[in-house]
Each structure stands twice: as C-alpha cells, then as structure tokens.
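Kindly review this protein for my students:
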Amino acid sequence: MEQHRNYIAGEWVGSDEVVVNRNPSDLDDVVGEYCLADTVQTNQAIDAAAEAFPAWAASTPQFRFEVLDRIGGALLAARDHLGRTLAREQGKTLAAATFEVERAAYTFKFFAGETLRIPGERINSLRPGVEIEVTREPLGVVGLITPWNFPIGIPVWKLAPALAYGNCVVFKPPELVPGTSWEMAKIIHEAGLPAGVFNLVMGKGRVVGEALLASLQVNGISFTGSQGVGRRIAAQALATGKKVQLEMGGKNPLVVLDDADLDVAVEAAVDGAFFFTGQRCTASSRLIVTDGIHDRFVDALKTRMAQLRVGHALDPDTMIGPVVSEEQLQQDLSYIELGREEGAELTGGEQLQRETRGYFLAPALFTGTHNDMRINREEIFGPVASVIRVRDFDEALAVANATEFGLASSICTTSQKYASHFKRHSQAGLVMVNLPTAGFEYHVPFGGSKGSSYGPREQGRYAQEFYTTVKTAYGRPL
C-alpha cells in the first residue's frame, strides 16, 4: 500500500513509522498508511517556514488572494472525493462530510477576499507636525494543532486566515484521521503556494506538538482539543513567549421553556445532541427543561430517537455514523455506565451490530438527572445527552451557567422577553435561539468563555486578532 508522506519545504518526505488509517464504519477498510514525522522532521518543517516567512509576508495581497482563491476552487472541485475520504476515515455521514468540505472551500475563498481588506489607521498625533500610522503585520511562523472531529473544517478555519495575513504554517493534523488533511496538502501544493509557506507534519502530539512548543522560531500556536491538553500548551507556550489561541470543548445547555414549540425543541435537541455522533464541541449535552413541558418533551424526544438510523457512514439512509475509534467508544460506554450508577434513567446507549465491523452506538438519553452528576459536568464527546428538570426560566438560566465551560448555549421559547434575556445573560460565547447549539458560519467569530476558550476568537474578521500583530509608527512628514 502506498504510504502518504509528510509535506516539508515543498517536498514529500517519508519516514520509518506509519499509522494505519481505518474506517470506523468498516474496520476491514483501510483508508491508507500515513507517515509519522519525528522531531527532526518537525524541526525541518519549522526551519522551512521560518525561511519562507520574509518573502511570503512581503507578498502582495493580490498574490495571496489568487493562491487562496485557487485552493478554495480546487477543494470545491474535489468535494466528492474529499467528502468520501472524510466519511471513511472519521465516520460522519457522507452528506455531512461533503458539506464540511464545501464549507472549508468557501472559508478559503472568504479569506482570499480578506487579503484585500487588511485594515490600518492614520491617527492624529497630540503633537503638531507628527503623523501616526497603526498597521497590522503577520505574526510569523504559526503551529496549528487540530482534532479528529472535523478533519478539514477546523484545519481550514485556522489555515486560511494564517495564510491570508501573511504567516507561514506548520500543521499537525490528528494522528487518528490524517487522510483528509493529506489530500488538502496535495491540493495546496498543486495550487502554487511557495515552498515552506505551508508544511504538513503528521505525527504524535508528544512528538510534533512538543517540538512546535519548544521551538523559538514558532511565534504562535492555535489549538483545538481537550481542556487538559490546552492548558498544558498554554503553560508551555508562555515559557517561550508564544501567542496562543485555544478552543477546549464545552458542556453545552439547551434550555426548553414551557412556551416552546415542541417540534422545534425536539429537532434542536436531536440535532445538537446526536447528529455527527455527538462528536462536536458545541453538542447539546445538557437538556434543561421546565416543569410544564418536561414530560411532553421527553416523550417526543424518545419517539424521535427511535426513528434515528445508525449505520455505515457511506449508506445514504444513515443519519448517525459510528463513533470514531475503539478508544472513544469505550469512553462513551464508560460514561453511559457511570450515568446509570449515578441513578439516572437510561434510554438507548447500547452498542450496535451492523453488517460491517464498526464502532456503532445507539444515541443515549438520561432522564432524572441533576446538574451535579459527573455526566452533566464532564465532556463526554459522544451521542449522549441528559435531561435536567427545572422549575422556571430563572432556574434554567442558573443551571445553564453552572458549568466551568462556556462555549455554546441555546434556548427554545416563543417569548421575546426570555430570548432577549437569555442572549444577554447566558455565559457562553455562542448563543442560539430556537436552534441547535451546534453549527457555525465562517464569516463570524467563533469561541467561548470560561474554560472553553483562551485567546482571540477564530473565524471571520476577528481572526486577524490572533494572526497579526499591531505596529504603531510615529514620524514627521518628510
């Protein structure tokens, strides 16, 4: 089988160690073998990025626009192939995988346009005869470390702005699902990006990630992953003066009030909690429901859950694909058992058998829970949700905010009063009304509060806050 190599300084570079990428829908289906970079190769990628940086930073906005726009167009043209690769290696449905590729393509195109709109200011000085200019300049060499749940969506929402603002990149994709990232690297190579501006190093976090953190040539780290790893990255980055941007998960509440449209609330819960196999940092894992609608909501939600089809990601009838790996499946099952031990009533949550060997899990719903249970405190990252019964809106808001996380929240209500109050007082960076907690758009900022995020926001024009530095220049007219 062909080994997929790392991409360093414009060249494809092999290694002695490889990882086998298997389809979680069919463990007999090998997506490919991918070379794992070591510390030496990672440092070579960092050196290449540092060498390429002066020329790329000085390149014209028009040149950067053309390259990023070509990459976006090529991703769109390859959407079917890339979507199938993504579905095979990660397990999300083919439709969802193809949509993720399309979003990634349009993200590149959005940031192609942003290359032409990098802002600056001319400000009057307090001193006569002095001029002041405030400009934005590239940060430098940026290390990107991304998770397995969105194999192209999350990398691109880091990579596209990094390149648009003139930075050079060393990108570490998840070891578990490197296939889509490798395909993207091939497209970037063919689009004519200068050698060294983008480098792909597939490898283990303790090898590639540690090398990125240790290098004095790396100016910033953008990371999406677990809270524990994110905090360690922040501490290590501080020691070498790196700028950091961290997205670290959530325990997101969906509040359902008595006056909610029941159908809207149920669909928001199903989408947010169970679609994408619940493997989203914005998933609705806590369903906070007021007394008057609680029983009707739970009954309707269980009915809707019974209609969900779990199966092979490439089957067009599948609504929920497999869990991504054996390790993640066991984590989900351990939390399901924990919920039962904590006294919650379980519906679903059993491991399923299908025609192919895979990590199939029925969506799990816990009822009769309270907010102090571990299943309501810790991020599970699977198709598992809990219902928490509350008296009224005030208690619902208090419970929703009673978490160390603060990424996303949502409320289902027909009351403008409650919707407005929730938007203002929900302690989350992303707030929805009559929508699932999950879902993002590339032209607006993404990020959370409290333990969910640290550093500048991602996406939209707010991405410039991380990927650029501000320079203030004073002078007398010449």
User: Anything to note?
Assistant: The CA atoms of residues 57 and 74 lie 24 Å apart. The mean pLDDT is 97. The radius of gyration is 23 Å. The chain has two domains: 3-248+442-475, 252-433.
